[in-house]
Design a protein that fits this description.
- There is one protein chain.
- The chain contains 8 helices and 8 strands.
- It has helices spanning 4-24, 97-105, 126-145, 159-169, 207-214, 220-225, 253-264, 293-303, and strands spanning 44-45, 64-68, 78-83, 108-114, 152-157, 191-195, 239-244, 270-274.
- An 8-stranded mixed sheet has the order 1-2-4-3-5-6-7-8, with helices on both faces.
- Helix 3 (126-145) packs across helix 4 (159-169).
């Protein structure tokens, strides 16, 4: 039997040893300074406070980005902004999350934009402001996370295609002296992918998209300003477009007019017209297969060195 005194002595020695060991350990490092936009996987607000022109603080008044990180084994440093369709009245999930998961498997970090909608009381330029801010944020995120800030693409479908085309024709350089670091970045996407897009707000317009974007009696000059086929310049980024002739919701003429205008401006669009297929196919759904645009798009992205 060990005497009580010996037990006390042993216990005291252990305390002293533990105290000395702890004293020998280096002091914990100070936590790093917080990033202006911390790396999170949930929805990210585009602005710290209220969005410009916000009508309130409802969820539909708060534009957000939801990130989908690239497959780590395939991450190639590119980023893609995704603008779902829905006629500026809702947001089609299969043209948002569905695309994001697909891009992530190809090594592209994707972000789905929840932009403000006409059915919630918004009109132009709220939607374009949201999309432009999102491109700028993607550049900030790319610099923060070690991706390429000069490989920022945008993809939009239907009305989301109109917003993407508007972004590709009405972008702005950053403000070098802006106090908000995000506003120092350019809102010009490096390329655009337009899926069965609404392009024109004139003869071949989708009436519902035009109404939700501009209201019942839009200014004719604003209608022209937002008809993307009339706004193309030599600085419009490279574009990939696809459409089906059978599309009865958004006529194929939208894509054809935009492609022709790109050619007149000296651009080299990649244009894919398919005979079969209804509007809104995205990547295809059960019983509604899509044409092989996705594989052709990946080939185009590789050809342009967007995927490396």
């Amino acid at each position: 039997m060990i005497p009580i005194r010996s037990l006390r002595f042993t216990f005291l020695n252990l305390i002293i040893i533990a105290t000395v060991c702890a004293a020998d350990q280096p002091a914990p490092a100070a936590p790093p300074a917080p990033l202006p936009y911390p790396l999170i996987l949930g929805p990210i607000r585009l602005w710290d406070g209220d969005a410009p022109g916000a009508l309130g603080q409802r969820p539909q008044d708060i534009p957000t980005l939801t990130p989908f990180p690239a497959d780590a084994a395939k991450n190639n440093g590119a980023s893609m902004l995704i603008l779902p369709g829905g006629g500026y009245g809702n947001l089609a999930e299969h043209e948002g999350t569905g695309y994001a998961e697909w891009f992530a498997t190809h090594g592209i970090t994707a972000y789905v934009l929840k932009y403000r909608l006409g059915t919630n009381g918004y009109r132009h330029p709220a939607m374009l402001n949201d999309a432009a801010r999102a491109v700028r944020l993607l550049r900030v995120f790319a610099q923060r996370d070690g991706r390429d800030p000069n490989r920022i693409g945008v993809i939009g479908s239907s009305a989301g295609g109109h917003l993407a085309a508007t972004l590709a024709t009405h972008f702005a350089a950053g403000q070098a002296d802006a106090t908000d670091v995000v506003e120092r970045e350019s809102s010009r996407p490096d390329l655009a992918i337009l899926c069965y897009p609404v392009i024109s707000l004139l003869e071949f317009a989708h009436a519902g998209s035009r109404k939700n974007l501009l209201g019942d009696k839009p200014d004719p000059e604003l209608v022209k300003f937002l008809s993307a086929e009339l706004q193309i310049t030599k600085d419009t980024p490279p574009c990939f477009l696809w459409h089906t002739v059978e599309d009865k919701t958004v006529p194929v003429e939208n894509t054809l007019m935009f492609a022709a205008a790109l050619r007149r401006a000296g651009g080299l669009p990649s244009v894919h017209i398919y005979e079969k297929g209804a509007h809104g196919l995205g990547l295809g759904r059960l019983g509604k297969p899509a044409p092989p645009w996705a594989d052709q798009c990946i080939y185009w992205l590789q050809e342009r060195k967007f995927i490396r």
